[in-house]
Design goal:
By secondary structure, the protein is an alpha/beta fold. It is 37% helix and 22% strand. It has helices at 47-54, 77-87, 103-112, 119-129, 145-157, 175-188, 201-207, 246-258, 261-275, and strands spanning 4-13, 21-31, 35-40, 62-67, 70-71, 88-92, 163-167, 193-198, 210-215, 218-222. The strands form 2 sheets. A 6-stranded mixed sheet has the order 6-7-8-3-9-10, with helices on both faces. A 4-stranded antiparallel sheet has the order 2-1-4-5, with helices on one face. Strand 4 (62-67) and strand 5 (70-71) form a beta hairpin. Helix 3 (103-112) packs parallel to helix 5 (145-157) and helix 4 (119-129) packs across helix 5. The termini are far apart. Bound molecules: adenosine-5'-diphosphate (ADP) and magnesium ion. Magnesium ion binds at residues 47-48, 167.
């Protein structure tokens, strides 16, 4: 069985000249391979920190995170890259879309960056699953807040991640649009583990298959805890490279410039001036 197991996880933010901030203090729980799990708690209780650690965006000081039987403590830098690029997808409150680009390109970049063959089919499938098939050629700055968040979800699921990490995904939306997004995430959770961080208790109870509540960096309640046997960390088997080949990086960079003629002209002028 695949699952995510968090054991006595500790994380303290330390900076020179500032007091230490303990963000996670012995957090433990195990999650199944699919379903919708809410991490509920007030602002500052450690929700985003926990999500960032799970997604390999931040490190931790103590305890462990076991994913598919592997300890994150044994991850090399490449393993962490692969984890971020292939295993997890992120959805944030701010959708972080490239506003001047089309819906298709925003979603397509995620697969282009991995040089995935047949990426076009994956983009089409992702747009279909968020109900935005007819919007592929629309620039993102001409979409509503809810549509933008659906593009962000399509971008996160286009690589078919095993875990979708959502940090306050409806925080910037009105309540009806928020409901649409939660329904969409609920559908995705039929075959993916969807972890939603939120301070909205009502939605957590309505949509969550499980609600884990945090307070001051600690778990204070868990609606459906899972007991599992201790897991021995096993070595990674798959050794597929996750780096972006130089040729591909160059062509993506060039396509950015070509789509913006003014920026391209400025770049050429600056280069000429520099060389002169
Ligand atoms: P939440 O997402 O529940 O609002 P966070 O995980 O963002 O909480 O923050 C948990 C605690 O860690 C808070 O006290 C916050 O101020 C602190 N914190 C978060 N990020 C940093 C950081 N980069 N540096 C220092 N302290 C931080
Ligand atoms: Mg947060």
């Amino acid at each position: 069985m695949k699952y995510v197991s968090i054991r006595e996880l500790n994380k303290t933010y330390r900076a020179k000249g500032c007091a230490d901030v303990p963000a996670l203090k012995g957090v433990s729980f195990t999650l199944p391979e699919k379903g919708m799990v809410f991490i509920l708690g007030k602002s500052g209780c450690g929700k985003s920190t926990l999500l960032n650690v799970l997604g390999g965006l931040d490190n931790f000081d103590g305890g462990d995170v076991i994913i598919d039987g592997r300890s994150m403590k044994d991850f090399s830098a490449k393993d962490t890259d692969r984890h971020r690029n292939e295993k997890v997808g992120f959805v944030f409150q701010e959708n972080n879309l490239l506003d001047e680009y089309t819906v298709w390109r925003n979603v397509g970049f995620a697969v282009e960056l991995q040089s995935v063959k047949g990426g076009g089919d994956q983009v089409a499938a992702a747009l279909k699953s968020v109900d935005l098939e007819g919007f592929a050629d629309r620039k993102c700055n001409r979409l509503s807040g809810g549509q933008k968040q659906r593009v962000a979800i399509a971008r996160a699921i286009v690589k078919k991640p095993e875990i979708l990490l959502c940090d306050e995904p409806t925080g910037a939306l009105d309540s009806d649009t928020g409901e649409e997004i939660f329904n969409l995430l609920k559908n995705i959770s039929n075959d993916t583990l969807v972890i939603v961080v939120s301070h909205d208790r009502e939605s957590a109870e309505k949509y969550g298959d499980r609600v884990i509540e945090l307070k001051d960096g600690q778990v204070i309640s868990d609606s459906a805890p899972i007991e599992v046997a201790p897991v021995e960390s096993k070595p990674e088997v798959q050794k597929k490279s996750c780096g972006l080949p130089a040729k591909r990086a160059f062509s993506i960079g060039a396509s950015f410039l070509i789509e913006r003629p003014v920026r391209l002209a400025l770049c050429i002028i600056i280069c000429l001036l520099t060389f002169t």
